[in-house]
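In these records, each integer encodes one residue's backbone shape. Here is one protein:

___
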Amino acid sequence: MNLKRIFGAMLTLLGIGGLIYTAILFVGTSGGNHDIRALVIYGILGIIFFIAGIGLIRTTKDES
């Protein structure tokens, strides 16, 4: 297994974790300024990690 694929899988899992954490924060938010800021930060980071991980997995070719 290629090191880039492992790194891509780790980024994808971090992205999924960030998006799940954002969903948990969204359910428990009261609408304060601090809550909205945390939602945006974790949501954007989760999306970036997820897309980067998927892109890295897709573009890496298997070489045996």
Summary: The chain is about 80% helix and 0% strand. Residues 19 and 46 are 5 Å apart (CA to CA).
